[in-house]
Write a structure and sequence with these properties.
Radius of gyration: 22 Å
Oligomer: single chain
Shape: elongated
Order of helices and strands: HHH
């Protein structure tokens, strides 16, 4: 398995990582790997969404939501 070394981590960031790892009962390595994975997943999802064709709703999405909210709120009362 390849290794990755990160240099020049600010002391405050390292302390925060250590605190988070202790609270989570795991290692700093596992915290950092999970964060990197989440960031890559987020960016890949954004790339995926950017490739989708635009959809023309014929009106603003906010207007459609404003129209539906009273119906939803009336159903739950």
């Amino acid at each position: 398995m390849p290794n990755l070394q990160v240099r020049n981590i600010p002391d405050t960031l390292h302390e925060r990582l250590g605190c988070h790892a202790r609270r989570s009962n795991c290692t700093i390595t596992s915290i950092v790997l999970a964060a990197v994975e989440r960031e890559l997943d987020r960016r890949e999802w954004q790339d995926h969404l950017a490739q989708r064709p635009e959809t023309e709703l014929g009106t603003e999405a906010a207007a459609l939501l404003a129209e539906e909210r009273p119906l939803r709120d009336g159903e739950t009362s």
